[in-house]
């Protein structure tokens, strides 16, 4: 079949930039079999992150939405959808949910909405305004795709979506790109940071309030104090609003020589191979891509006991869960891992095995292909037929 005759799936996101949602979308497009066409609509704009898309022919559209309600974006998206005439529109998270109505008016036959997690403005999904929007949108969305079992239960129990309309799909990680090192990596040593005998813990992500890296920095400072292991080193990869605050806290502690904060990097797989332990201190998570990437690299993970983290990290087997904002508890965990090489080695192997068995890219792609095939081949909806969920 010619490329232009393949079914078109339009993915609507807020912005194409570094992030777990966006990374999952790029992985989906790059690894999906060539039986579908894909286009991405950014309500705002795209960034250099688009270069991670390796598939030819993926069009990316920018609507340049202004802050707040920008009614012109609805008109622009409606016109675009009418021109593209997709078989499926797949929106993601609350910022794009109201464009299910736009897709409905544009007569898109099938509409999917993904729930990837909550941000700082609605940390636990309890906002009355956003719950109301989700409940009103139930009549427009055909299938919901939550990233975790936690989000699946929230959709059915809190929002009131019937179980038959929910298809939970985990993010997947490229187990060939993210894998344990073949030998002793030297990237951090070459950077003049970590050396033989150091125990290096690290984190990767947007430096934003919801990611809560300050908890990690404070725990690291506490772990180093009062006779703690002096071989501890900390790597913080990423950029965002909290970068300057975190950097200033490190300087005030006098531990600048023990903390590496290079900002955004393109060599995350190589950096992860230099770590001994991965730490994620988010205030909430759907399914964290960085946790999966760390586990695929063979790293034990210490994470806050929130959202989907408890579905990925099994305490005592692949890492440890700690209570949110329990700085003292996290500091103890860091010292325990630094002093127990056997536990690190055992949990490293278990983490890699867990990802290979349950969270590989191939598992994720298989689930999405099944979903899109079911949508497109069901015969219940045809192009040009306006359908609203009953």
Tag the structure with descriptive keywords:
six-stranded parallel β-sheet; alpha/beta; Rossmann fold; 390 residues; 15 helices
Write the layout of secondary structure elements.
Blueprint (H helix, E strand, L loop, with lengths): L7 E6 L6 H12 L5 E6 L16 E4 L8 H14 L3 E5 L1 H4 L1 H7 L4 E6 L12 H10 L5 E4 L2 H11 L27 H4 L8 E6 L8 H12 L7 E6 L5 H11 L5 E5 L4 H5 L4 E4 L8 H8 L4 E4 L4 H4 L6 E4 L4 H12 L2 H18 L2 H17 L13
Parallel strand pairs: 1-2, 1-4, 2-3, 4-5, 5-6, 7-8, 7-10, 8-9, 10-11, 11-12
Helix pairs in contact: 2-4, 8-9, 8-13, 11-14
Low-confidence stretches: 379-386
How many distinct beta strands?
12
Look at the structure and give the mean pLDDT.
Answer: 91
Compute the number of helices. Answer: 15
Question: Would you state the CATH class of the largest domain?
Answer: Alpha Beta
Assign the CATH topology of the largest domain: Rossmann fold
Output the CATH homologous superfamily of the largest domain.
Glycogen Phosphorylase B
Q: Would you tell me the structural class of the helices and strands?
A: alpha/beta
Note the main sheet.
6 strands, parallel
Shape verdict: elongated
Tell me the span between the first and last alpha carbons: 34 Å
Secondary-structure arrangement, i.e. CATH architecture of the largest domain: 3-Layer(aba) Sandwich
Give the strand content: 15-25%
Strand line-up in the sheet with most strands: 3-2-1-4-5-6
Q: Nearest-angstrom radius of gyration?
A: 22 Å
N to C succession of SSEs? EHEEHEHHEHEHHEHEHEHEHEHEHHH
Tally of separate domains: 2
Approximately how much helix is present in the residues? Answer: 25-40%
